[in-house]
Design a protein that fits this description.
three-stranded antiparallel sheet; 241 residues; 37% helix; 24% strand
């Protein structure tokens, strides 16, 4: 469901390869999701029914592809200095980032994610700032105008955000309120990091966050194909995996 929510449409062959199971197993699972009114079966795959109730809650999403997210998180932490003010968004990858930040550091963590701040507070991190606002149950985070107004009063040394899709021109999201907040955060940060796994490339979601050329650094889990590496080099964007 996370893959379907991200890509909006998937096919059986790709899913069977990703999960290393038979095509028949994938078809059976997609048929079950259709019976639950979460997807519509298509020729060779399925597409998402446009309804936020079908989004996967963060408590489930944070453990999907855990090794990939951990590997990206470890790279991110290398760029965080001891006295930095760091923004972490409400993505599951950002949740993994905070698990690798040393507890005894002097880093200030700012986030709209209740999950991230609950985790950090449980370990007695000394400097935490929460962006409040309208609570979104599915992402366990705060969004909306109040959240954006609070973000407008802060500046960050580094901002780590995710997205639903990356094309050659822009980074995009499926949720307009998350997109608006991420856009504001990027305008308030000195160094901009986009943290996105390989499945987000060549995907365009409905709402634009920012132009791709505005990003300083992309951290992903797999080496992108040559056309992407060439394009990012032209935009002077560093990429690491």
């Amino acid at each position: 469901m996370e893959l379907i929510s991200t890509h909006l449409e998937v096919n059986v062959l790709d899913l069977s390869e990703i999960f290393n199971v038979t095509d028949e197993t994938i078809r059976r699972d997609l048929n079950l999701l259709e019976k639950e009114n979460k997807v519509i079966r298509t020729h060779g795959g399925a597409k998402l029914i446009s309804n936020r109730k079908n989004e996967v809650p963060i408590e489930i999403r944070k453990d999907i592809f855990k090794e990939n997210k951990d590997s990206m998180a470890k790279i991110c932490v290398k760029y965080i200095n001891n006295d930095d003010v760091v923004f972490l968004d409400a993505s599951t990858t950002a949740y993994h980032i905070v698990t690798f930040i040393p507890v005894d550091s002097n880093i200030t963590i700012v986030s709209n994610s209740l999950a991230i701040l609950n985790y950090a507070s449980s370990l007695n991190f000394k400097k935490l700032i929460m962006l409040g606002g309208k609570f979104d149950v599915l992402t366990n985070s705060f969004i909306g105008n109040t959240t954006i107004e609070q973000a407008d009063r802060l500046y960050f040394d580094k901002a780590f955000i995710s997205c639903r899709g990356i094309n050659f021109d822009a980074i995009t999201d499926a949720n307009i309120e998350q997109a608006d907040l991420r856009s504001k955060i990027l305008s308030q940060a000195s160094k901009l990091f986009l943290v996105a796994d390989h499945t987000k490339f060549n995907i365009t979601s409905m709402y634009k966050i920012r132009n791709l050329k505005e990003i300083d650094h992309i951290i992903t889990d797999k080496c992108p194909i040559s056309k992407w590496k060439n394009h990012l080099e032209k935009l002077n964007i560093d990429i690491e995996f």
